[in-house]
Design a protein that fits this description.
The protein is built from 8 helices and 7 strands. By secondary structure, it is of the alpha+beta class. The protein has a 5-stranded mixed beta sheet. A hairpin with a 2-residue loop joins strand 6 and strand 7. It is elongated and about 65 Å long.
Length: about 250
């Protein structure tokens, strides 16, 4: 395949960025999107040009590092991570736009790399348990109803990639935050911080400068792990419960 790439290039956080056009040839349909970018970078290095900076790590759809907006869609045309997106999703001769996440809370570091440490600070605000868990407990030592366990597992699938923020027209982080809140709040180990967790994490989310949620639903559509939109509803209920309980103390 021969492809025309329009890639966002930005030298650093303070520099102005712009789209640069490149042509890559000999791309196999079986390549992942990141392997295609590797091919581009190899050609740029051989020419003595600066390679395109982009985030990647596991390349197995687990870490969430591969944060790219491809043709205006977070992670591209398939509901998967960029590293698991294959070039067979495109056609020979296509022109493909490649951009970084676009959100005020995710400033560009260089080219396609953005600073997502805002997510880390939201986690630090409450995404943990203080109950001493020790080594792995024996099965059924702590009874958890199956619906609660299923709900916790569903939300634990969030890999923190930020696609929800990139897809949201408001740049909101509600789906990410709700996944982290609901994952722990339904488990007995997370009960001691149930109120403080949701209050602190939502407060930190707002402090980071993410936009307000209007339930547009684009976040759930773009999420490669299928975190449902109802997760936000669940967190809103938790937040209301916590504010009422704290106000009565």
């Amino acid at each position: 395949m021969r492809l025309n790439l329009r890639v966002w290039r930005q030298k650093n956080a303070d520099a102005d960025g712009a789209m640069s056009t490149y042509e890559v040839d000999g791309i196999s349909p079986d390549m992942s999107f990141l392997e295609m970018l590797d091919t581009l970078n190899e050609e740029l290095i051989l020419r003595g040009d600066d390679p395109v900076a982009f985030d990647h790590d596991c390349r197995e759809g687990i870490c969430g590092a591969c944060s790219l907006v491809i043709d205006g869609e977070a992670h591209g045309p398939e509901r998967t991570t960029t590293c698991q997106l294959h070039m067979r999703s495109f056609r020979d001769g296509d022109t493909i736009d490649v951009e970084p996440w676009r959100a005020a809370a995710f400033p560009v570091v260089k080219d396609l790399v953005v600073d997502r440490s805002a997510f880390d600070r939201i986690i630090q605000a409450g995404g943990y348990v203080t109950a001493p868990t020790g080594a792995a407990p024996e099965a059924h030592a702590t009874p958890v109803p199956k619906p609660d366990a299923d709900l916790a597992f569903e939300h634990a699938e969030c890999i923190g990639c930020g696609a929800c923020v990139a897809a949201c027209p408001n740049g909101a982080a509600m789906l990410f935050t709700s996944a982290k809140v609901n994952h722990l709040n339904v488990l007995p180990q997370g009960a001691p911080e149930r109120e403080t967790r949701v209050l602190d994490m939502v407060a930190q989310m707002d402090e980071e400068g993410f936009g307000g949620c209007t339930l547009a639903g684009e976040c759930a559509t773009a999420c490669p792990k299928g975190i449902p939109l109802s997760s936000i509803t669940g967190m809103n209920k938790e937040w209301l419960r916590a504010t009422r309980k704290v106000s009565k103390r």
